[in-house]
Design a protein that fits this description.
The protein is α+β, with helices and mostly antiparallel strands and 260 residues long. It is built from six helices and twelve strands. Helix 1 crosses helix 5 and helix 3 packs across helix 4. It is globular, with a radius of gyration of 19 Å. It starts with 7 loop residues before the first strand and ends in a 27-residue tail after the last strand.
């Protein structure tokens, strides 16, 4: 029986506190050099959405949002601040569910998640109403970062921008790919592979990018660990020459969505 390759993931240390205009690529290269390592062909770099948003200047003060009538309606229904509701509305294409705990919204990019990805954790000034929005286009951000790293290091790699999300039917969050470049997002094995008993697979589509993001998120941590990037090795077969269609290609089409 053919043995699967060994997969490894490790958080990158020595990264700075990122701010608007800083270079993630430069910081990654410096971190690896400090560990006497460098990017290799087939590596996958996973970075937390927060550092991408920070360097892209996506920090906002809630007080700057002017709550419209719909935001006030949401605030009344959820017991939450109208300004936060306005921020969610401006980042969303549709509000799907609303509770005091969270507003489930379809982000402009098509991803469905709590509060349209708006978060105050690990944001300086978060306790005073400062929040962080998602990148305007996470797939484009992944392509830019991949291009910079491949040029600097002369390697072929994949890049994933990850954020933690909940899932229908399950409790708890895990890392999801919200931006992706140079990596197979979905491996469709339907009709092309067999199980142990020779039956052709009929429904198996592997979420490669999300699986990589989830694995890396465990290594990076969710709180005060201060490690917003991780290096994944052993997934070379999914790293592609081209940037590819991005993480949005892994979103379920609306006509197949059983939860709306």
């Amino acid at each position: 029986m053919k043995r699967n390759p060994e997969l490894t993931v490790r958080p990158l240390t020595g990264l700075p506190m990122f701010a608007t205009g800083m270079s993630i690529a430069q910081a990654i290269c410096a971190s690896l050099a400090g560990e006497d390592d460098r990017l290799r062909d087939g590596d996958i770099l996973v970075v937390a959405q927060k550092i991408v948003s920070k360097v892209e200047g996506r920090t906002r003060d809630l007080a700057a949002f002017v709550a419209a009538e719909k935001a006030h309606e949401l605030a009344h229904a959820t017991g939450r601040d109208p300004e936060m509701m306005q921020a969610i509305l401006e980042e969303s294409s549709q509000v799907l569910r609303r509770t005091p705990a969270a507003v489930i919204a379809a982000h402009r990019t098509g991803h469905v998640l709590a509060n349209a990805g708006i978060d105050a954790s690990n944001v300086e000034g978060g306790e005073a109403g400062r929040v962080l929005l998602w990148p305007l286009d996470p797939d484009a951000s992944a392509r830019v970062l991949r291009g910079e790293l491949q040029k600097k290091c002369e390697v072929r790699i994949g890049v994933v921008i990850a954020d933690s999300m909940g899932r229908a039917w399950r409790i708890g969050t895990l890392g999801h790919a919200i931006g992706c470049a140079g990596l197979t997002v979905l491996e469709d094995r339907r009709g092309r592979a067999q199980d142990l008993y020779g039956r052709t697979l009929q429904a198996t589509v592997i979420g490669v990018a999300d699986s990589v993001a989830a694995m890396a998120a465990l290594a990076m941590g969710e709180g005060a660990e201060g490690t917003p990037a991780a290096l994944v090795r052993g997934c070379e077969r999914w790293v592609t020459e081209e940037d590819g269609p991005g993480a949005v290609s892994g979103l379920r089409p609306i006509e197949q969505d059983m939860f709306r």
